[in-house]
Amino acid sequence: MPRTASTPAKLAVGTLAALGIAWVGWGVYIKRTTERVPYTTALTLNGVEIRRYPDTVVARTTADDGEEAFRRLFEYIDGGNQSQEDIPMTAPVTTEPDKIAMTAPVATEQSADGVRMAFFLPGEYTAEGAPKPETDEVTIEHVGARTLAVRPFSWYATSGRVERNQRRLFDTLAAHDLTPMGDPSLLRYDAPWTPPFMRRNEIAVELAE
């Protein structure tokens, strides 16, 4: 007679399937409910988008590592400000990572001062009107309208994936005679628990006008 799976095994498989569906459903919900920084795409070149971003406001910090930087910024938007105001989370989170031999870099920006990270604030805030941080380790800054070259990629933003996509970004810019300004940043759009195949990451660098 053919062997059939035992009841405990069936229950285990069913539980794992239910957890997987819930995990994906949670990821979809977070993506749909998180405000994103608006932009317009002017053109796409070999997988690189040339985007125009409007004026934005960010909460920024520099810390010894990415965990500490994220904690500071999350505490700020979670009511840890002088107004005790909860500020909705907005995507992406910007980090400026380890420099790579070529020209520039997130999985994070690592400089001599540490990891620089920024949360974009919702569009209704101005630099002057945003809640003031309780600590001088977090600053509120206005970022003027700018043009960015952006290369998207999925899955986890490991150092290897960041390096490969960074190299491809700069190769594409060089091939089209586009001049980057400053160092690249890693843009991450998803919460840490988002399934890897649903994650959206980008390497971005500002372009000279």
TrEMBL record:
<dbReference type="InterPro" id="IPR006917">
    <property type="entry name" value="SOUL_heme-bd"/>
</dbReference>
<dbReference type="Pfam" id="PF04832">
    <property type="entry name" value="SOUL"/>
</dbReference>
<dbReference type="InterPro" id="IPR011256">
    <property type="entry name" value="Reg_factor_effector_dom_sf"/>
</dbReference>
<protein>
    <submittedName>
        <fullName>SOUL heme-binding protein</fullName>
    </submittedName>
</protein>
